[in-house]
C-alpha cells in the first residue's frame, strides 16, 4: 500500500486555508476545466466558480464577476491553480459577509469544518489536553508521552501518528477499534501512520462524528483547528454517552406521559442534558429557563442552584450572594470539585460563555450525580415503549451513522423520529443521486401541518421508485406514521444503491452491465482464490462467514500486508468468532473502508451487512487499481487484466456470476428481503 501524498501548494499561507479534501476537489475542478478550455483565463472563472457546490444558490456568474473584477481586472490573464484558489477564497469571503458573519469555529455543538476562520480557542485546547492527560495517563503506549503541556504544541504533534485519535475513540465508545489493528511502534513509517489515521477517521465516522472535509493528511500535518474540531466531537460523544434511556432509565422522570417520552427519545443528547438541568433547576426554585450552554449560564446563578440541589451537603448560600460573576464562577467550580468533578474549565470560561466547555462541565456533573431516583414502576412502564428487537436497533444505528457520514445539513439523532417529516430523506437522496430532488416541491422544517410532511414523504417514495427500489404498496404516510420496518427497508435499499453507484462510477470507462449483488460475491470469491486461499462463500447468507476467515482472506488478497495472521483465531468458538469479527472491522477501516456494521453482524451473518462489507472492500480495491492504472505503461497494462479495473469488472459476466451462486440467492437479497419487509410492515401497526 502506497502512502498518501496530498495536493501541494507552494504558498504555505494559501495552503493553510484549505483541507486536503478541499484541495483535491478544487484541483480536480481546475484540471477538468483546463482540459475543456484551450486557455483558462480570468474571464472563464465566474461561470466555473458559480457551478461549485460551495456557491450554488448563493452567487450567480455575474455576481462572482463583480467580486473578481476588483482583484483581477485583466480578464485575459491566464489562471494557474493558485490563482484559482485565491479567486475561490475571494468569493467565499464575500459569501461570509453576505450571510452576516463568520462560518468558523470548532465546536461540540456545531460539528462542521470550515476554511474561513482558523483561530483556535486556547481554553478549549487546554481543556482537551487535560482530558487526555486524565483519561489516558495509564495507557501502556501513551503514558510515556503524558502529561502534555497545554502551553506547547505537543498535543498537535502527538495526534499526527493516529494512535491518540484511536485511543480517544475507544474511550468514547469502548470496543469501536480493535487495538490489535493499531500500529504502535515508537517510529512509524508513512504507510503505518497513514493506516492509523485512516482507521481513526473511519472509526470516528462510525461513532457519529462529522468528518466531512477532513483527510488523513490534514491530521498528519497537525492542523490545529481541524484537530480540535475532531477531538471535540469525540470527547462530546464520551461525555454524553449516558444521556439515553438504555444506559440511564431514570431519565423517564423528566417526562409525565408517553407522548413526552417519545419526544424526549428523539432529542439530541445535549438537548436531553438541558432538559435534565431545567428539571432540577425548577425543583430548586430557579425561575429562568436555560436554553443554551453559553449566555444562559455565564452569570453562574444556574450552576449555583443546580449544585445546591444535587449536592446539598456542599451547598452554601455564599455562592448566590456573591455579586461578582467571576467570583461566583470560582465558588461554583470549588463546589463541583467537592463532588469529584475534574476542573476542565476556568471561572473565565464560565463568564465568557464558552459553549463547548460549559456543555462538558454540565455533562460531567450529570455523570457524577444526576439526582434522579430509581422509580422502577415508572421506568418499566415507559420502557415498554422501547421494545425494538436487537436487530432493529442495530440497523437503526447503522443507517443513522451512515446518513450522518454523508455530510447532510441535518444531523440525525434518531432515525425513527428525525426522518418522519421526509426532509432528511430528501437531503440524502440529493446526496446519493444529485439532481433527483425537485426542491420546489419540498417543505422545509419546521413543519407544523401533517399534510406537508406527507408531501415530502410522497416525493421520497416517488424518487425511490424512479431509482427502481422495491416499494410495493408503500406510501409517504407510512414514513410519517413511523412504520419502522418500511423505513429500514427503504434505507437499506438506499445504502445498497449508493454502494453500487460508487462501483459503477469506477467502471465508467469500461463496457458492461450494472453491478449486481452476485457480481460482488463472485469478485470476492475470485479474489480469494487467485491468491491461493481456500475459503469460498456460497452466498452472503453462508453461515461459514461467521468465522470471519473468508473476509480476512479477502482483505489479505486486496492488500497482503494489512492482516497480521498471528492474531487470527480459527473462528470455531463464539469467543474466537468475536475476536475475528472485531479485527475484520478495524482492518477494513484501516485499509480505507467506510463501514458501520458491528461484530455481531458478522457473527450472526447478517446478509445485508455482509454484502456492504464485501462491496466496500471491492470498492477500495478497484479504487487503488484505478489510481495505479494512470501510472502504468500501456505494455504493462496489456500483460493481463489482473491489474485492471476494466479486467476485474468485465470478467464478472452474468453467466460467471450465476456459476458461483447457482441458487441466485444473493441476486434476490434486496428485492425479496425488502418485499417481505414491506408486506410485514403493511400488516403491522406503526
Automatic annotation (TrEMBL):
InterPro entries xrefs: Actinin_actin-bd_CS (IPR001589), CH_dom (IPR001715), CH_dom_sf (IPR036872), Fimbrin/Plastin (IPR039959)
Keywords: Actin-binding, Cytoplasm, Cytoskeleton, Repeat
Pfam family, one: CH
GO biological process entries: actin filament bundle assembly; actin filament network formation
PROSITE patterns assigned to the protein according to its UniProt record, in alphabetical order: ACTININ_2, CH
UniProt GO MF annotations: actin filament binding
Localization per Swiss-Prot or TrEMBL: Cytoplasm, Cytoskeleton
Bias (Polar residues) ranges: 643-668
Record region (Disordered): 629-686
SMART domains named in the record: CH
GO CC, one annotated term: cytoplasm
Domain Calponin-homology (CH): 122-239, 267-370, 393-499, 514-622
Subunit structure: Interacts with F-actin.
Name this polypeptide is given: Calponin-homology (CH) domain-containing protein
Organism listed in the record: Brassica oleracea var. oleracea
Amino acid at each position: 500500500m502506497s502512502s498518501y501524498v496530498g495536493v501541494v501548494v507552494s504558498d504555505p499561507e494559501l495552503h493553510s486555508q484549505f483541507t486536503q479534501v478541499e484541495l483535491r476537489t478544487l484541483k480536480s475542478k481546475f484540471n477538468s476545466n483546463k482540459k475543456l478550455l484551450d486557455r483558462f483565463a480570468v474571464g472563464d472563472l465566474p461561470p466555473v466558480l458559480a457551478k461549485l457546490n460551495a456557491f450554488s444558490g448563493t452567487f450567480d456568474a455575474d455576481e462572482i464577476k463583480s467580486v473578481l473584477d476588483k482583484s483581477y481586472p485583466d480578464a485575459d490573464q491566464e489562471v494557474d491553480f493558485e490563482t484559482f484558489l485565491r479567486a475561490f477564497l475571494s468569493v467565499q469571503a464575500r459569501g461570509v459577509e453576505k450571510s452576516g458573519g463568520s462560518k468558523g469555529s470548532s465546536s461540540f455543538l456545531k460539528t462542521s469544518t470550515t476554511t474561513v476562520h482558523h483561530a483556535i480557542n486556547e481554553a478549549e485546547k487546554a481543556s482537551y489536553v487535560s482530558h487526555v492527560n486524565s483519561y489516558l495517563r495509564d495507557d501502556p503506549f501513551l503514558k510515556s508521552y503524558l502529561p502534555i503541556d497545554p502551553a506547547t504544541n505537543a498535543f498537535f504533534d502527538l495526534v499526527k501518528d493516529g494512535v491518540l485519535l484511536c485511543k480517544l475513540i475507544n474511550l468514547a465508545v469502548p470496543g469501536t477499534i480493535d487495538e490489535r489493528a493499531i500500529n504502535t511502534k515508537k517510529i512509524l513509517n508513512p504507510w503505518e501512520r497513514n493506516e492509523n489515521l485512516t482507521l481513526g477517521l473511519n472509526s470516528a465516522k462510525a461513532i457519529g462524528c462529522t468528518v466531512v472535509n477532513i483527510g488523513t493528511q490534514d491530521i498528519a500535518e497537525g492542523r490545529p483547528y481541524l484537530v480540535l474540531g475532531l477531538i471535540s466531537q469525540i470527547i462530546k460523544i464520551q461525555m454524553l454517552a449516558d444521556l439515553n434511556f438504555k444506559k440511564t432509565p431514570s431519565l423517564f422522570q423528566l417526562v409525565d406521559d408517553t407522548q413526552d417520552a417519545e419526544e424526549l427519545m428523539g432529542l439530541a443528547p445535549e438537548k436531553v442534558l438541558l432538559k435534565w438541568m431545567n428539571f432540577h433547576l425548577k425543583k430548586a426554585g430557579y425561575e429562568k429557563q436555560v436554553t443554551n450552554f453559553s449566555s444562559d449560564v455565564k452569570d453562574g446563578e444556574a450552576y449555583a442552584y443546580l449544585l445546591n440541589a444535587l449536592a446539598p451537603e456542599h451547598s452554601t448560600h455564599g455562592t448566590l450572594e456573591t455579586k461578582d460573576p467571576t467570583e461566583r464562577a470560582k465558588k461554583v467550580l470549588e463546589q463541583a470539585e467537592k463532588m469529584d468533578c475534574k476542573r476542565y474549565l476556568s471561572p473565565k470560561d464560565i463568564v465568557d460563555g464558552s459553549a463547548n466547555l460549559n456543555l462538558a462541565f454540565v455533562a460531567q456533573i450529570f455523570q457524577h450525580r444526576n439526582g434522579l431516583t430509581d422509580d422502577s414502576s415508572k421506568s418499566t412502564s415507559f420502557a415498554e415503549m422501547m421494545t425494538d428487537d436487537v436487530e432493529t436497533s442495530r440497523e437503526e444505528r447503522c443507517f443513522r451513522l451512515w446518513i450522518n457520514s454523508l455530510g447532510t445539513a441535518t444531523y440525525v439523532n434518531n432515525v425513527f423520529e428525525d426522518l418522519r417529516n421526509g426532509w432528511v430523506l430528501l437531503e440524502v437522496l440529493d446526496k446519493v443521486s444529485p439532481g433527483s430532488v425537485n426542491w420546489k416541491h419540498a417543505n422545509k422544517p419546521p413543519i407544523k401541518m401533517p399534510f406537508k410532511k406527507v408531501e415530502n414523504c410522497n416525493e421520497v417514495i416517488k424518487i425511490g421508485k424512479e431509482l427502481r427500489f422495491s416499494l410495493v404498496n408503500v406510501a409517504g404516510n407510512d414514513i410519517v406514521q413511523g412504520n419502522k420496518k418500511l423505513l429500514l427497508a427503504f434505507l437499506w435499499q438506499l445504502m445498497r444503491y449508493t454502494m453500487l453507484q460508487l462501483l459503477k462510477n469506477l467502471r465508467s470507462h469500461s463496457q458492461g452491465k450494472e453491478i449486481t449483488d452476485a457480481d460482488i460475491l463472485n469478485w470476492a470469491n475470485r479474489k480469494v482464490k487467485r491468491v491461493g486461499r481456500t475459503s469460498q462463500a456460497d452466498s452472503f447468507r453462508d453461515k461459514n462467514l461467521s468465522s470471519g476467515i473468508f473476509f480476512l482472506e479477502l482483505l489479505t488478497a486486496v492488500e497482503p500486508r494489512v492482516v497480521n495472521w498471528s492474531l487470527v483465531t480459527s473462528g470455531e468458538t463464539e469467543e474466537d468468532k468475536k475476536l475475528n469479527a472485531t479485527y475484520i472491522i478495524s482492518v477494513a477501516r484501516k485499509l480505507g473502508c467506510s463501514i458501520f456494521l458491528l461484530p455481531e453482524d458478522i457473527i450472526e451473518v447478517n446478509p445485508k451487512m455482509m454484502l456492504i462489507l464485501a462491496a466496500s472492500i471491492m470498492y477500495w480495491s478497484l479504487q487503488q487499481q484505478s489510481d495505479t492504472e494512470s501510472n502504468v505503461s500501456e505494455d504493462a497494462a496489456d500483460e493481463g487484466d489482473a491489474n485492471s479495473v476494466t479486467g476485474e469488472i468485465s470478467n464478472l459476466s452474468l453467466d460467471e456470476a450465476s456459476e458461483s451462486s447457482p441458487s441466485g440467492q444473493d441476486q434476490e437479497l434486496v428485492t425479496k428481503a425488502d418485499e417481505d419487509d414491506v408486506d410485514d410492515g403493511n400488516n403491522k401497526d406503526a
